[in-house]
C-alpha cells in the first residue's frame, strides 16, 4: 500500500510540473523552479523527471516551444523573427536550423505550404484514396479535459505522461487518444471542448482532474497522417468536405477522435503518425461477411 501511495504522490507532483511548463512556456523555466513545484530537491528532481517522462525538462520545453511555433506559422501572420524569440531562440538563423531539423523544412517554407493548402485544399497530399472504413474495438481511457484552443491540448498530454510514468503505466504498451467534441469553425475558441486520453485498465486510481471514460466501439472512417499536428486541419477538411459527401455514409452521434501512433519524444514532427477517426452509422459486419 505504501508503494502505491508513493506512486500516486509522485504522479501528482510530476503532473503539477508538466502543467506549469505547458502554461508558462514564455518564462524562464529553471530546474530549481520546477523542482520547487514538485517539492523535490534539485539534486534529484532532474533524474526523477527524466526517468518518468523519458526526456529532460530542457527537452520538454524545446519540444513544446517548437510545436507552438509550428502552430503559429500555420495559423497566424506573426513575423518569423517574433515566433523565433517566443520559441527561445536568439536569432532567426538558430530558429531556422532547429525548426528545419525537426520538420524537414525551414519555417518560411512550412508557412508557405500551409497557406497554399488552405487556399487550395484539393491540392494537398491528403486525398480520398487514403480513407479506410473499419471497426474500432473501443478503449478504456483516463481522460483529462481541456477547454480552449485545440492546438493547446498538448499541455494536458504532458500532465498525462508525467502521471502515467510515475504510476508505472509504461510497463506495457499504451494507446494515446484525443477526443474533440466541437467544430472549431463553429464554436468560439475559448469554448472548445476536448480530452487528452491514455489507455488504462478499468478501475485504476486516477490523477487530479482525470475521469475514466470509454471510447465506444463501432464503424469508423480513418486517415493516417504523417507530419506535424499543426497540419491535421487538412485531414478534417478531406474527411468532412470531400470524402463524406461523396461516400454514401452518415456520421454517427459520437465525436471525432485521434490516436497517436508513435511517441513525439522519440521521433521528429515530420515523422509523427496520427490516425483521425470519423465515427459512422451502421453495424460492423463480421469478417468475411
Protein described:
The chain is of the alpha+beta class and 289 residues long. It folds into 2 domains: 2-119, Orthogonal Bundle (Arc Repressor Mutant, subunit A), CATH 1.10.10; 128-279, Regulatory factor, effector binding domain (Multidrug-efflux Transporter 1 Regulator Bmrr, Chain A, Alpha-Beta Barrel), CATH 3.20.80.10. Helix content is 42%, strand content 18%. The protein contains 9 helices and 8 strands. It has helices at 2-23, 31-38, 42-53, 57-75, 80-86, 92-103, 107-119, 154-166, 233-247, and strands at 132-136, 139-147, 176-180, 193-199, 211-215, 218-226, 256-260, 273-279. An 8-stranded antiparallel β-sheet has the order 1-6-8-7-3-4-2-5, with helices on one face. α4 packs antiparallel against α5. The radius of gyration is 20 Å and the shape is globular. The chain starts with a helix and ends in a 10-residue tail after the last strand.
Amino acid at each position: 500500500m505504501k508503494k502505491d501511495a508513493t506512486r500516486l504522490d509522485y504522479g501528482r507532483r510530476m503532473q503539477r510540473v508538466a502543467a506549469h511548463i505547458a502554461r508558462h512556456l514564455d518564462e524562464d523555466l529553471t530546474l530549481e523552479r520546477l523542482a520547487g513545484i514538485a517539492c523535490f530537491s534539485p539534486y534529484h528532481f532532474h533524474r526523477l523527471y527524466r526517468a518518468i517522462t523519458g526526456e529532460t525538462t530542457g527537452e520538454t520545453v524545446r519540444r513544446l516551444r517548437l510545436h507552438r511555433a509550428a502552430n503559429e506559422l500555420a495559423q497566424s501572420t506573426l513575423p518569423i523573427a517574433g515566433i523565433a524569440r517566443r520559441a527561445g531562440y536568439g536569432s532567426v538563423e538558430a530558429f531556422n536550423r532547429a525548426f528545419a531539423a525537426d520538420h524537414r523544412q525551414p519555417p518560411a517554407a512550412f508557412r508557405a505550404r500551409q497557406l497554399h493548402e488552405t487556399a487550395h485544399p484539393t491540392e494537398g497530399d491528403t486525398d480520398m484514396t487514403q480513407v479506410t472504413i473499419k471497426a474500432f474495438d473501443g478503449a478504456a481511457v483516463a481522460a483529462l479535459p481541456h477547454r480552449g484552443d485545440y492546438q493547446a491540448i498538448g499541455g494536458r498530454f504532458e500532465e498525462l505522461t508525467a502521471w502515467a510514468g510515475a504510476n508505472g503505466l509504461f510497463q506495457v504498451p499504451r494507446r494515446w487518444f484525443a477526443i474533440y467534441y466541437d467544430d472549431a469553425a463553429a464554436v468560439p475558441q475559448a469554448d472548445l471542448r476536448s480530452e487528452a486520453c491514455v489507455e488504462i485498465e478499468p478501475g485504476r486510481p486516477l490523477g487530479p482532474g482525470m475521469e475514466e471514460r470509454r471510447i465506444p466501439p463501432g464503424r469508423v472512417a480513418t486517415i493516417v497522417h504523417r507530419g506535424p499536428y499543426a497540419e491535421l486541419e487538412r485531414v478534417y477538411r478531406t474527411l468532412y468536405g470531400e470524402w463524406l459527401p461523396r461516400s454514401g455514409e452518415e456520421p454517427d452521434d459520437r465525436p471525432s477522435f485521434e490516436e497517436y501512433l508513435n511517441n513525439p519524444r522519440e521521433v521528429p514532427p515530420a515523422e509523427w503518425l496520427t490516425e483521425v477517426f470519423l465515427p459512422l452509422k451502421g453495424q460492423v459486419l463480421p469478417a468475411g461477411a
